[in-house]
Amino acid sequence: MPDAPDSPQSSAAPGPSDAPAAPGQDGFLKVLGRGDVLALAFGAMIGFGWIVLTGDFIDAAGSAGAAVAFVIGGVVIALVGLTYAELVAAMPRAGGEHHYALRALGARGAFTASWAMVLGYVSVVAFEAVAVPQTLGYLLPGAMEAGHLWTVADYDVSAAQVAVGVLAAVVMTGVNYIGIRPAGVFQTIAVLFLLAAGAAMVAGAAVGGSAATMEPLFTGGVSGMFVVLVAVPFLFVGFDVIPQSASEIRLPFRQVGRLLVVSVACAAAWYVMIMLTAGAALGPEELTAADLASADAMAALWNSPAMGNLLVVGGLAGLLTSWNAFLIGGSRLLYAMAESRMVPAWFGRLHPRFRTPGNALLFIGALSVLAPLFGRPMLVWLVDAGGVNIVIAYIVVAVSFLVLRRREPGMERPFRTAAGPAVGVAALLLSFGLLVLYLPGMPAALVWPSEWVIVGAWWIAGLAMMARLPKVAPGADAEERLIAEIERRTGRK
Prior knowledge:
It is built from 20 helices and two strands. It is an all-alpha fold and 493 residues long. Strand 1 and strand 2 (155-158) form a beta hairpin.
């Protein structure tokens, strides 16, 4: 992946030479260094799904089949990531794909990508709010069952689960509200703990794992691998948090592109490791029956419940890193949409002291407060509903990448993806392939009515807002023309 040497800063965003403590041209503080960026993206991709869903994946495809599916999924996401890497280096502004699509496809294309990705981010944040009490229920058996409230899809929702999930949502939103630097430090510490837990699982597989336990290596055939692949967009979403926070990164733009690709490779390696080590510990039936399959696998590898609890704490760290990153990404994307007048200006207000999009953070935090009310069934609903929207955003970004390569070959690209058109076409076709997996009749189709209701309600609201947007042609000045036209219309009212 050859890339061009760092070039003078473009007018699209303030450069990395800006003082870290001073607001850039768009008002954000540029404080994130190399370690912060890598921790942000990797931690976003390594959430809690690997603790909860491992048994389902191995049951569907076998331990080796699930690992292969994650390799395939990692290749797909890496190709998409390469398109992002070039675009973020060329247009390093808060909002990421919003600006890429606006320049390449115009206002409607930008809204489609942004609105889809916002639901993807919100779904992950809400997923974590539900997963926290599930985690504590493993560590403190019986504690999360107190105070039965109601039943959702045959699952009993308790007052304890709701209280813990709501409290966690409030705390995480608060940490992000007071600034990117506290959120970045928190992210780095949590990722280090997560890596320590992963190292312990690898060591346990070497000591107590068995190749015989992994049999059969492949089950379910192609359909089984599709079950795993359909979760890939949800589990790998996170590298795109780098473009969302680009205005707060103090690195040469070329390095930002490289770190994005590295983060995807690290996440793919992590998921493959989890599938193989869990498969070496317990059979598919035992993993499927477990509430937290990876934790039970860790306990079996070390023959110690305490080690299972250690992995759960590591999973909790992963949960918090993912939660933290998507609060950052989602709020910056809503901020960018507000700056372009696509959503109410309320979302685009930066806190005067903390320099964070406080209102956008409060909005996402409020949605995450609602998720624990639905209990564990919401976990699966959010994976699929969020995943299909993430893939839609990836498709729009791949199209934007190809359009800009053709229309603006001379655009400054500090990071230039080798074989760009081929990579863009591959990313586009493979993303379409992932999208097909969610359609009716496919093995991993969205579930009616729960998942379709989430997706449908979101897009009914989105289409209503999109219909009000003026038809602004793409171009480097598309945002300025869009703002001017909206203000002209508003002025007439």
